Structures are given as structure tokens and as C-alpha cells.
Amino acid sequence: MATACSHGKTALFPNLAQSAERSEIVIIRNNNLLGWGFSVKVYYDEMVIANLRAAEHLSFFVEPGFHSVGTSDDRITLPLSAGQAHYFLISADYTQFGFEISRISNEEGENWLNKTKRLE
Questions:
Q1: Residue-wise pLDDT tens digits, 46-87
Q2: C-alpha dihedral, 62 to 65 to 66 to 68, nearest 10°
Q3: Which residues contact 107 (CB under 8 A, 6 or more apart)?
Q4: Do the Cβ atoms of 39 and 68 come closer than 8 Å?
Q5: What is the SS3 assignment for 35?
Q6: What is the CATH number of the domain that holds 79?
Q7: 85: which of 33, 69, 70, 101 lies 20 to 30 Å off by Cα?
Q8: In angstroms, rounded to a whole number, what is the distance separating the alpha carbons of residues 102 and 88?
Q9: Is the pLDDT of residue 18 over 60?
């Protein structure tokens, strides 16, 4: 139960500065009622970097190349380009009662940012 209540960034959260040579990763958790009381572990390259609550988002910069992002239940591995933002949405998976992650368009990502709170 302690894991479900954890919240915030971990000591492994990437801290690279913004740069035109880096890729930005933006991870958003929707505000769906299913799973609302639980924090979701956010993974980046096999490390837990944060725990997000419903209606929160985070962003960070990484070196370009192949990277993996996701949850305990679902991961996406893909090449990330320099100088670009890459948006991902975490939502409840109704078939498995877990959480899934999907890549979304920049426009959809910007819309979600207006509906969620930034994790500091």
C-alpha cells in the first residue's frame, strides 16, 4: 500500500538542461476515475523516475536516441529526435486493471497540459 501512496520525483529523475541537441519527453496522466486514488510509477529506460497522480504531468530532457518510457504494466521503446518534444499519455487499462501508455500528438499533448498540473 505504501507504493500506491508514493508521489513525486525519485532520485533517478533525469536532470539534463534544455538544449536544441536534446529531446524533450512529456508524460501526462489523465484524470480518469479508474485508478484515481493510486500513484503510477513512471519508468524511463528501466528506472522508476517518478510517481504520478491523476491529472499530473512531468517533462524532462534526454540525449536523442532509443529510449523506453512507460509504467509497470506497459512500456514503449522508440527513437527520440533532437530538438523535438515527444508526448505520452498514461491511462487506466480497463481490460487488465492496470495502466497503459500511448504516444500522442503534440497538439493533443498541449491540450492535456492545460488540463493537468505539472509535477514539481
A1: 999 999 999 999 999 999 999 999 998 899 999 999 999 999
A2: 10
A3: none
A4: no
A5: coil
A6: 2.60.40
A7: 33
A8: 5
A9: yes
Of 41, 42, 53, 55, give the one whose Cα is nearest residue 3. 41
Q: What is the pLDDT of residue 95?
A: 65
Task: Please tell me the pTM assigned to this model.
Answer: 0.90
Residue among 73, 61, 69, 115 nearest 88 (CA) = 69
**C-alpha cell belonging to residue 40:** 503510477
Q: Which domain holds residue 70?
A: 2-118
Which three cell numbers mark 103?
504516444
CA distance between the termini of the chain: 23
Q: Which three cell numbers stand for residue 32?
A: 480518469
Say if CB 64 and CB 81 are below 8 A apart: yes
Q: 116: closest CA among 62, 104, 23, 74? A: 104
Cα–Cα–Cα angle for 84, 8, 60, nearest 5°?
Answer: 15
| Rounded-to-integer distance, Cα 86 and Cα 80, Å | 7
Number of compact structural domains in the chain: 1
